[in-house]
Amino acid sequence: MILASSSPRRQELLRRITTHFESIPARVSEHITKPLAPAQHVQTLAARKGNAISAQYPTATVLSADTVVSFREQIFDKPKSLAAARATLNLLQGQTHQVYTAVWLKRPQQAIQQRVVRTDVTFLSLTAHQIERYLSTDEYRDKAGAYGIQGYGGLLIKAITGDYYNVMGLPITVVSELLAGDELFLD
Description:
Strand content: 15-25%
Number of domains: 1
Oligomer: single chain
């Protein structure tokens, strides 16, 4: 199986299900020209990544995923700068936002399977000092919504409703369901 991602978090989570995979990042544009709802946004990007790798490796089982943070229908990808991360955290603090992950699976000569998982995340009310302290860890880099729940970012969170692993970037229960019956599953 190929995981169409270079994300260390996705690799770590997939290893909880199987060790029989290779990670090959899809080199595709993540730019979407027209605004989409968050669920459609992640479905589009997960499919784009999965299709790119499937085209290169047509006899392989390919798994891809895409994750975004959404607040009031605005999508927050990975922040492009410290200032963008600060602005995102200031907006999310004290509020409930959504994390969407699309999971895309293609087996050779079988129909594509795709699921979207949503988790609601409520941040604590944060002071400017707390936000700056978190940003000083550099953990916000390469994380949708400028935080990682599995690290110091977990200290910013008051509550979650839904799949914890979805917030990390790969809802492993859904992946397990999609892979159930495969000989790769739970080795």
